[in-house]
Amino acid sequence: MSRLTMREAISQAMWEEMEKDPSVFILGEEVGVWGGSYAVTKGFYDHFGGERVRDTPIAETAIIGAAIGSAMTGLRPIAELMTINFAFAAMDQIVNQAAKLHYMFGGQFVLPLVIRAVGGGGRQLGATHSQTPDAVFAHFPGLKVVSPGTPADAKGLLKTAIRSNDPILFIENATMYQVRGEVPDGDYLVPIGISCIQRPGKDVTIVTYSKGLEISLKAAEELAKDGIEAEIVDLRTLRPLDMGPVIESFKKTNRAVIVEEGWKSFGVGAEIASRIYEQAFDYVDAPVVRVAQKEVPLPYNRALEQSALPQPSDVVAAVREVL
Amino acid sequence: MDNANLLDFYYQMVLIRRLEERGAELYQAGKIGGFMHLYIGQEAVSTGLIGARQPQDRVITAYRDHGVAINCGIPANEVIAELMGKATGISQGRGGSMHMADRTRNFWGGHAIVGAHLPIAAGLALGDKYAGRDGVTICMFGEGATNIGFFHEAVNLAKVWNLPVLWVCENNRYGMGTTVERASAVSEIQQKAEGYGMVHERVDGMNVLAVYDASKKAIEAVRNGSGPRMLEIMTYRFRGHSMGDPERYRKQAEVKKWEEQDPLGVLHNHLIENQVTSIEVLEEIEERANLAIQKAVEFAEASPEPGLDTLFNNIYAEEV
């Protein structure tokens, strides 16, 4: 066990997998000589060389296309999108190609492909660089969407993703790279498609993932001061979605708040709330409440931007509403 | 090229022609659904091109893919069964006309989003280069695909990384109903190769021998590490863009003029004029192709539909 930042955990996962398997390689903008625009691949170029840590032109369609094609030949590419906002420039390759090619040709093509993309707001980057469009990608069967909330899960899920034979979008959050946590050393794997309890409680179920976990843990501390014990379920994977721990917790607490950084409309919270009503209607003691980003393109001004993003106080208020 | 190869080209081209003619009938009879784009008129392009590849060379193309599938060696049975959506189709009835592939024959698909397979082709070539194999990826696309961003990102990357790709533009003069002059800044598509520092050549696509010779030279040059190249193969489709094309954008006289250069006729004349073979032998080849298509239709008609219980098969490679 080591105490690592999220950045170090992600970096370690890739480093270990590249040491183990020569078919694993990285491609993306500034991943090599520069060392990664978020420094996640720092040191990789010098150690693994330019064939395995490939700097690309600023051309997202080419990055994802090259990753798809090389994956079809049996390689295990890790394509880095500098931010998830740039994924829209490669939308066809991600949703029309990566998510479809296995099915559409009767299972002939296998795509062991990981797309790493960093998202989230709160860094005064303006509307085009601050989005959390996770739900958009989780919409498509054929793609798997993973988004860890702790350094340990980041390492374990990424290692599993690299070894997986399916196309996986691995979404990181830029404001969480410095978050520290205990991370198991060596071959630590976390299965994809399994939700987990990050904090046990009995009074209310908070369902969240990624940045929402950090927000929810802070809110839970506040609530605990008043004797309210929130149970936090971390989805970790959006597709395939594991509702097991959510429903189990809800049947115990009968109340739920869903926390996500993305917009509320048509979002992750809408999906979770709907499934709770479908699968546990008889256990509902209060309407499910969603905490999410306000419905606005994120502004540059710090105070304006923060006012649009979900805060721990919003979660505390939501919990008080359902109790 | 020896005479046996020439006769085999003739067989493949007639086979594609008959398959497409029969396909049109089946479509009109309601036995084939969706969109269907016929290769009639363009048979010499993929026949000569794929005839020039080695087994380790990958082929990837757009949605006008039935002929390419045949040239890659997929039996007509499985092509027609796929057109009819049967379980025995080459893509198990999941893909249809626009999505045929057979990785065992190094055919990496018909792809239906214009230009979207070009970045994937770069990736296939990267796979070979990374692994130190000497395969060349042959990527076919229409001239219409050279106006979309995919093309430019893919050919740029392939050049920057010196990937073993042969880019093959089938210039049939129309992107759906829009002429090349109305859609492309330059009507000679090979000029676009200049912008990416690629060797290029314009080829007569109605003459399978010309296509073969140019392809052979280009594929081997790419294999030898001289970087990606481009062929612009001039051709013409005798039928509409798809089965639902009223063809208001061109005159019948223009079609007739091109039909005088029918690639089957061009090869037929070559074989007779150069005394490669006799009329009787060519008629026998035509009969063989007719029979193969007839049998393929019977096979497809008799084949089962995919079971409804298989709907969710192969969404992922791993169990979820």
List keywords for this structure.
heterodimer, A: 323 residues, alpha/beta, Rossmann fold, 2 domains, seven-stranded mixed sheet, five-stranded mixed sheet, 37% helix, B: 320 residues, two-stranded antiparallel ribbon
Structural description of this entry:
- The complex is a heterodimer of chains A (323) and B (320).
- Chain A contains 12 helices and 14 strands.
- Chain A has 2 domains: 2-183, 3-Layer(aba) Sandwich (Rossmann fold); 196-322, Rossmann fold (3-Layer(aba) Sandwich).
- Chain A has helices at 6-20, 44-48, 60-72, 91-98, 101-104, 134-138, 151-163, 211-225, 244-253, 268-280, 302-308, 312-322; strands spanning 2-5, 24-28, 53-55, 76-81, 114-119, 144-146, 168-173, 180-183, 196-199, 204-208, 230-234, 237-239, 256-263, 289-293.
- The longest helix of chain A has 15 residues, at 6-20.
- Chain B is an alpha/beta fold and 320 residues long.
- Chain B has one domain: Thiamin diphosphate (ThDP)-binding fold, Pyr/PP domains (Rossmann fold), CATH 3.40.50.
- Chain B is built from 12 helices and 8 strands.
- A 6-stranded parallel β-sheet of chain B has the order 2-1-3-4-8-7, with helices on both faces. A two-stranded antiparallel sheet of chain B has the order 5-6.
- In chain B, strand 5 and strand 6 form a beta hairpin.
What topology does this entry show?
The complex is a heterodimer of chains A (323) and B (320).
Chain A lengths: L1 E4 H15 L3 E5 L15 H5 L4 E3 L4 H13 L3 E6 L9 H8 L2 H4 L9 E6 L14 H5 L5 E3 L4 H13 L4 E6 L6 E4 L12 E4 L4 E5 L2 H15 L4 E5 L2 E3 L4 H10 L2 E8 L4 H13 L8 E5 L8 H7 L3 H11 L1
Parallel strand pairs in A: 2-3, 2-4, 4-5, 5-7, 6-7, 10-11, 10-13, 13-14
Antiparallel strand pairs in A: 1-8, 6-12, 9-11
Chain B lengths: L2 H26 L14 H9 L6 E4 L4 H6 L4 H8 L23 E4 L6 H15 L5 E6 L6 H12 L4 E7 L2 E2 L2 E2 H4 L6 H5 L4 E6 L3 H16 L5 E6 L17 H8 L3 H11 L5 H24 L18
Parallel strand pairs in B: 1-2, 1-3, 3-4, 4-8, 7-8
Antiparallel strand pairs in B: 5-6
